[in-house]
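Predict the 3D structure for this chain.
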Amino acid sequence: MSRLLLCLSFAMSLAAQAPVQAPAAAPAATPVPAPAPVAKPRVQLLTSYGPVVLELEPELAPKTVANFLQYVKDGHYKGTIFHRVIDGFMVQGGGLLENLDEKPLREPILNEAPQTFRAGLKNTRGTVAMARTGSPHSATAQFYINTVDNKSLDHRDLTDEGYGYCVFGRVVSGMEAVDKIEKVKTEWRKGQSGVPQYPVRLKDVSLLPQ
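Done. Predicted structure below.
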């Protein structure tokens, strides 16, 4: 019995002297790469005065951008004109032919001006917004490009007068062409003011590859 205790004592002594191994380090976590930024869609307007490129904001104005891009894909804008031009204000087009007849349209869309205004999209020079009637939710295909800052067109409240006009993008190239269009001579025609004396055509409108 004493021999067994001696053996156990010797084994315990060896165990006490044995170096203690540190736990294995956990493998380093593989860093997750940040998602690549999604390119915003760009649309080129080929006008009588040169190309104009618009960059759109689908995250801030999803319904408006989807509606605009569908008209682009359908070829709706080709052959339309800038039919309303007001120096020191804006140029408007996208719905009428040279004889001022209106092209067939889809249903009007929801006015996203409240949310886009809160996100910082305002009717400042070079921005593009949806044209509409006095009814807030009446925009279809027509759009306008601001040639100056137009604070009066921004969203203020949810009344018909204060709802505002939805900005959904901006000119990133070709603002000089817009400035030339703004200066054309205009006249009254078929009960409309600001009609260019000589047609300012949208020869083509296309979605640029990303």
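Strands lie at 42-47, 50-56, 82-86, 90-93, 127-130, 143-146, 167-173, 186-189, 192-196, 202-207.
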